[in-house]
Specification:
This protein is an alpha+beta fold. The chain contains 20 helices and 21 strands. Helices cover about 45% and strands about 15% of the residues. The N terminus is likely disordered. The longest helix has about 90 residues. Strand 20 and strand 21 form a beta hairpin. One of its GO terms (biological process) is microtubule-based movement. One of its GO terms (molecular function) is microtubule binding. This is Kinesin-like protein.
């Protein structure tokens, strides 16, 4: 890719790179605007009263107390206020246009919407989905504004645009563009680049349509649910981040890189549980939302105070991400959204107070020139390297090299991961202007055409002379040949005339194309001038508003001066009038103190309610731990727990073993093969067969007796007495068994052996039916 020529000299004495005034870091306050929504259909049906009045000329928002008088009204002055009849385009022109122009110049910009739930923050930032173009919010209009600026910029400037979308749900950062939008992302600190989200997805975009597609994808993944005050209540804070990198040729002939970053923040609304009716998971979400908004309020208070040496940015993920936007290197606009109904008086008062305090925050924006982490620089170096390789390979001349470097058709989207650096694709704007042949080529074409005509004429003359020389041919043949030659000459003349017409038309088209190119350049220049005049007009309007405020202040001072009079009576009257005014101010101050005390009491009650809920949850978890987790494990876990200030959470350190001082194995119980507790020993002694109380790894089981195969004899009367006696005798003890039994019962030495009895039994038992051995006595 050949180096682009240097740009023309800028108009109005402005530098092509940066204005001397812009390059310096000057302090500027946060711009705060207030927008009130119209009454909803529900509020109209309930007969609610409008308590908010907007004075758009003076930039004053007037809040009336429900049922009170004009003396009870409170007024707040802001940079701009917008009534319910203001259009989305007017909001964009007065709030976001200047920030976007600054981002295109290399500044950081932030626009965030703040207010209670149901006040219209999401409508202001993104507008209704699939709604008409006139209802589009700041985000879609910002996309169009950025790419319109790119299309009307000089061809010597190259741009790279990428977008990211995240949300903070229950103090967890989620990537709305990733494949797993419910996954948790980590927040990291970079000493050079500040706070960033690790592994956050980024998409290179090349048109407004692609940016809209990213927005719709993120909105579909965002946490939204219904409450009593809002059917589509956002349950998380969302941040849409746009990074615009540009490389322009400076007066020194070198490329200068600028990086502008735009953060579009849609905050979740503050809620009161009594009005939203949130329970369960919705109540937990509301608690986290209110805590993060309280942390944001504490940061604003610390920045406005000026005496605080510590700014509590680390109290919340939200304040850490907005650290540059509040008191840092960013141009910031705060859009405070309020509701007009009387039952939202307390919430509207709180929003106006926060917004009024935010006016005093001072930032120090500066242009981000030649940053080290610019992706466009890496891609320029990569393109030059590839071009050098192509030229070294041979066969690629300068013209062919320019053709080879034409960008390929753009992809729909590309996702990259933030690891150490983001490698992206350079987005170039290419304007194709068709051009005709050069004057040298036209002259060569004319000479070639004249030569061809001369050759045709000479051939025709030679043919004519040849025909006239042949006198022997018939007259008719001669005439035919002459007519044919005339036709050929006429055709050649017509072809010459056609070529001349084409040449004239070509020159005319070239002249028109040159004029078209000049007209296009004039249109671009006029559009730049128009935008410049619009910016001047907005600045003049802002200046007029400041002058009106100064005029009102001067008028008050003049009234005080006119009160000076010569006579004592007039002096008394003037002093009485002044006293009355001071008394009215005193009464208002007294009422303001009462309102502040009431507001602080409500805030205290809300905080106490959240503390009670958190204490209840803490006690429940402590009870579960005490009931199911051993105390030793709890103590070990507490000893290993370490607070991570960066991630704002506790972490459990891994267990480390001391190889040198290892714990000794306890000795065995006396007489037992292994260590045994007293409890196990007692249970084993008492006969408990549970294996956990055993001393050895031996399983004791009962004997497995075989199955019995015999039965006891039962008397059968039907067999007869004789058979019965025979069976009884057969089943009785054998003689040998009797002898063995008697031998086992031998008396000890020294004792006399008793003779067995002889003779017939005395019990009258019948004699045995079997023969008896000789010499033996009958068995009893």
């Amino acid at each position: 890719m050949a180096a682009p020529p240097p740009p023309p000299a800028p108009a109005d004495g402005q530098s092509a790179i940066s204005s001397p005034l812009k390059s310096k870091s000057s302090s500027e306050c946060v711009k705060v605007v207030v927008r009130v929504r119209p009454l909803s259909s529900k509020e109209i049906s309930e007969g609610r009263e409008v308590i908010v009045t907007m004075d758009t000329k003076r930039g004053v928002a007037i809040l009336h107390r429900p049922g009170g008088t004009d003396r009870d009204a409170k007024d707040f002055t802001f940079d701009a206020v917008f009534g319910a009849d203001m259009t989305q385009q007017q909001i964009f022109d007065d709030t976001a246009a200047d920030i976007l122009d600054s981002v295109m110049d290399g500044f950081n910009g932030t626009i965030f919407a703040y207010g209670q739930t149901g006040a219209g923050k999401s409508h202001t930032m993104s507008g209704p989905q699939d709604g008409p173009p006139e209802l589009q919010g700041l985000l879609p209009r910002s996309f169009s504004h950025i790419f319109n600026n790119i299309d009307t910029t000089s061809q010597d400037t190259t741009y790279l645009v990428r977008g990211s979308y995240l949300e903070i749900y229950n103090e967890e950062i989620r990537d709305l563009l990733s494949k797993n939008p419910k996954g948790r992302c980590e927040l990291k600190d970079n000493p050079q680049g500040g706070v960033y989200v690790k592994d956050l997805s980024a998409f290179v975009v090349k048109s407004t349509e692609e940016m809209h597609q990213i927005l719709q994808t993120g909105l579909a993944n965002r946490a939204v649910s219904a409450t009593q005050m809002n059917e589509t209540s956002s349950r998380s804070h969302s941040i849409f981040m746009i990074t615009v990198e540009q490389c322009a040729m400076g007066m020194d002939g070198e490329g200068h890189i600028r990086v502008g970053k735009l953060n579009m923040v849609d905050l979740a609304g503050s809620e009161r549980q009594s009005k939203t009716g949130a329970t369960g998971e919705r109540l937990k979400e509301a608690t986290k939302i209110n805590l993060s908004l309280s942390a944001l309020g504490n940061v604003i208070s610390a920045l406005v105070d000026g005496k605080s040496s510590h700014i509590p940015y680390r109290d919340s993920k939200l304040t850490r991400l907005l650290q540059d936007s509040l008191g840092g290197n960013t141009k910031t606009v705060m859009v405070a959204n309020i509701g007009p109904a009387d039952y939202n008086y307390d919430e509207t008062m709180s929003t106006l107070r926060y917004a009024y305090r935010a006016k005093s925050i001072k930032n120090k924006p500066r242009i981000n020139e030649d940053p080290k982490d610019a992706m466009i620089r890496e891609y320029q170096e990569e393109i030059m390297r590839l071009k050098a390789e192509l030229e070294a390979a041979g066969g690629v001349d300068g013209e062919a090299g320019d053709i080879a470097m034409v960008p390929l058709p753009p992809r729909v989207e590309k996702q990259v991961e933030y690891v150490d650096k983001i490698v992206e694709k350079i987005v170039e704007r290419e304007v194709v202007v068709e051009q005709g042949p050069s004057p040298e080529e036209v002259a060569a074409m004319e000479a070639q055409l004249r030569q061809q005509n001369e050759e045709a004429r000479l051939k025709a003359e030679a043919k004519r002379r040849e025909v006239e020389a042949q006198r022997d041919l018939a007259e008719s043949e001669r005439l035919r040949l002459l007519a044919q030659i005339d036709e050929q000459e006429h055709a050649a003349m017509q072809e010459e005339q056609r070529k001349a017409d084409l040449q004239s038309k070509l020159q005319h088209m070239e002249h028109k194309m040159v004029q078209g190119k000049q007209i296009m350049e004039q249109a671009i220049q006029q559009e730049h001038e128009l935008k410049k005049h619009e910016r001047r007009l907005r600045k003049q309007q802002e200046r007029e508003a400041e002058l009106r405020q100064q005029e009102e202040q001067q008028r008050q001072e003049n009234l005080l001066l006119e009160e000076r009079c010569a006579s004592q009576e007039e002096q008394v009257v003037k002093l009485t009038t002044k006293l009355q005014k001071l008394w009215d101010k005193y009464q208002k101050a007294q009422q303001e103190m009462v309102d502040v005390q009431h507001f602080n009491q409500q805030e205290r009650e809300d905080m106490l309610s959240m503390i009670r809920d958190l204490r209840q949850t803490l006690k429940l978890k402590a009870l579960i731990m005490e009931s199911f987790v051993p105390m030793a494990e709890i103590q070990n876990t507490q000893e290993r727990a370490v607070w991570d200030a960066e991630e704002d959470e506790w972490r459990i350190q891994p267990v480390t073993l001391d190889k040198e001082n290892r714990p000794k194995r306890p000795n065995s119980f006396l007489g037992l093969p292994r260590p045994t507790t007293e409890f196990a020993r007692l249970n084993r002694t008492m006969g408990d067969s549970n294996p956990r109380y055993m001393f050895d790894n031996i399983v004791f089981t009962d004997l497995d007796l075989p199955e019995r195969t015999t039965e006891d004899y039962e008397v059968q009367p039907e067999l007869g007495d004789r058979i019965e006696r025979a069976l009884t005798l057969a089943l009785s003890q054998d003689d040998d068994e009797v002898k063995e039994a008697k031998g086992a019962e031998m008396p000890e030495k020294g004792q006399k052996k008793m003779r067995p009895a002889s003779g017939i039994k005395r019990d009258g038992a019948p004699p045995s039916a079997f023969p008896q051995a000789r010499g033996l006595v009958s068995r009893e």
